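Help! Submission page says 'invalid entity' but I think these are all valid:
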Amino acid sequence: MAFKHKHLLGIQALTPSEIITVLDTAESFYEISTREVKKVPILRGKTIINLFFEPSTRTRSSFELAAKRLSADIVNFNQQTSSAVKGESLKDTILTLEAMNPDAIIIRHSCSGVPHFTTTFCQSHIINAGDGSHEHPTQALLDAFTIRQEKKNFKDLKVTIVGDILHSRVARSNIFLLRKLGARVVLVGPPPLLPLEMKKFGVDIGFNLDRALEGADVIMMLRIQMERQQKNFFPSIREYRNLYSLTEKRFRRAKKKAIIMHPGPINRGVEISADMADSAKSVILKQVENGIAVRMAVLYLLLGGKKREAFA
Amino acid sequence: MKLLLKNGRVIDPSSGTDGKLDILIEKGKIVDIKARIESKGAKIIDASRLVVAPGFIDMHVHLREPGQEHKETIATGAAAAAKGGFTSIACMPNTDPVNDNRGLTEYILSEAKKKAVVNIFPIASITKGQRGEELTDMADLVDAGAVAFSDDGQSVESSQIMRRALEYSKPLNTLIIEHCEDKNLSNEGVMHEGYYSYLFGLSGIPASSEEIMVVRDIILAQEAEANIHIAHLSVKGAVDIVRNAKKKKIKVTAEVTPHHLFLTDSCLENYDTSLKVNPPLRSKEDVQALIQAVKEGIVDVFATDHAPHTQDEKDVEFDKAPFGINGIETAVSLLLDRLVSKNIISLKRFIKMISTTPSLILGLENKGKICVGADADLTILNLNKEIVVDVSTFKSISRNNPFQGWKLKGTPAMTIVGGKIVYPFFSSKSL
């Protein structure tokens, strides 16, 4: 069980066994968050910078708590309070932060490829917390962790991902991960948001939600961004809701034990009806909880050094 | 000062010449071409084992002066061209301010006369300020020295204005050059739309955004019976459109850049901004179609679209980096190595596409040919010398070239402009 990466830039670079290593490691950390004293000294003395150029609550807090529960020191850096608003280039901003000798920098940015660009001039470990429309690897890992809790095995699972696939980094990372672990992936959404060429990712593509839900084990709903409608990717929210909202009636087409996932934040009543979001089939809050254990695992595997074997 | 080139393999596609000949140059002109020339007092250059070609002409260059001299100036762009083997370059009008009036064109020509080591031919904009709204005073600009018109960087969006420009250009004997891109379709795209844009999560520029404008411009040129030149052809669909137009004898010509011939969209996996260019690097299928088009003669000209940007400007998020590749110092070696030495096209054909034809398309008198009376603009090639691309040796101010480290066989050995050796950069006395 080796994890020989300096950075976590995306799921694409990981092998199936490395993915399993992350999930197994996360399992061993899961229990820490349920203790009365939610802290272990594994990353004591390590400094981590949470560098978020995009608004985020759950991913940022999840990384922050993960780092704190491993006893690392973590500093939050927000775009609003940074020198970026004074016209400093991204490279200068990151070099400035790196001069403070952090061990890892967690980056969220609205432009695809920023974590990759950062590795070209930065010595720290870089963790991608979401880059543009490209990847969001820790989300896919926590989704996989959640699926494994519910389904045990990825082989022969049918996972239906619904919504704005074109712009979704969550969808991309999940597609890469699920395909590597042998699950069957079906994508469904409005045609302008779901290019046919994505079939080359090894997935099935459909435009009819009812059909795509037939026999699904996992239903992954994506947040639909209202600004896409202004660019005519779909005609109206009303039409989107009619065609692609997950309702109870539609859910009946999936397997009885199917689970509902959503990376959040949810548009209640748009991509998912409120009763479905709150139903017993929904694991949405479970995903949030698992996010901490998975991010602890990622931080530990990248920064843990020699202590790794002893702990495992 | 007389210059005598001895024993070179002289290739001139315009006359069909290909053989060991001596060339005598006097007062900037070719005065004699024979198997053996003796001339007292002439400086002798031994060109044995070298190829002597009519001076190369790059009809698509961005010189950035006036306005963005931190990227390139007329002087540095010209020096880069000389090093790259070019004796003449045509510069696009998207300077700041735009070259849309006599004053600017005359300024560029007068600066060029003072500082440039190669011939500079300004291209003026089709519309004032490249805004796509009103035509420039085209006759006045031709009179001032503009050799062609283009709103390069964007298409003329209004079909009516494009039609008027084509009609108006006819009696002026000038040329309209179009950067074909429907901005409504390319929108915020930063790379070719397709499998790799979906994989990398980058916004796509669809092939249709080029194809639609190529088709429109060809239809308008046919209607106006005017010449149209398609800049940097990059997609298979556009190649097919040009092929059909040529079959119908429509007066269309087209160019292709080395980067569109030798790089694909898959190269962007590391988000390297030196590969960010417009039109974008296309798919493998498109590249195959472009090479086929070169072989068939559907593409008439090689041009570089030399677009310098500084390291700081390129060292940013991929989405925010400016489009453009600094290509004038690597083009000849790339084409020699990848097309000529691999026998995809003949050496003669290569020379035709980079000298003879661009000179004809731009109507440059006494250039693009080796004959008595022609300008002594010559490019001398060493086909056997291997080079490794090293951007730190560039004469251009900027370094945004993605071929760093490529090993290439064949390189310009000497560039002669108006009888003067302008590359290598030592004074002719030391020869």
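Support: the input was valid. A stray whitespace character was the problem, and the output above is from the cleaned input. Chain A has two domains: 16-136+288-311, 137-286.
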